[in-house]
Amino acid sequence: MNWRYLYGNVCVLALCMIAGCSRPSDPYDRVGFSGEVTLDGEPLPAGFLYLEPMEKQPTQASAIIQNGSFQVESHAGAVPGRYRVCIVRDDVSDLPDGVDPQTPEGAAIADKLSRAPTLKPLPEMYNVKSQLEANLESNAENSFAFHLKMNPSPPRRK
Description:
The chain has 158 residues and is of the alpha+beta class. It has helices spanning 3-21, 104-114; strands at 33-39, 42-43, 46-53, 61-66, 69-72, 81-89, 132-136, 143-148. The strands form 2 sheets. Strands 1, 2, 5 and 8 form a 4-stranded mixed beta sheet that branches. Strands 4-3-6-7 form a 4-stranded antiparallel beta sheet. The model has no long low-confidence stretch (mean pLDDT 81).
């Protein structure tokens, strides 16, 4: 038996298997991000954080907040740039089975559940009319802290 022939066939087979099992490449140079969310000085028990592009970036991202912390790996992150940050709480109801909070439909359901009468919703300045921002950078830690208040002081007028 020709060992060189056998070795060559094994190498070709291995390369085909590797190529067939790989993920499609992502055209965007995404970065991960992490951080904490507190409400009146205490970790937000559960919620969702959304990054909406402010500079025509081709990506947006979301994160699940658990015990005041969130983390998104780079493969699920967003491209560098400025983002508006929207935060909704979810410490009353679980989402129905099959609802993904990282889709627009799921986010709408999560937001509706977060506004249940048994739970006072976060002020609009943290979600619907968010004034929060995050700047994602390449080759940076991209760690953020959002300290929310249920009764924030109104903005000062000049």
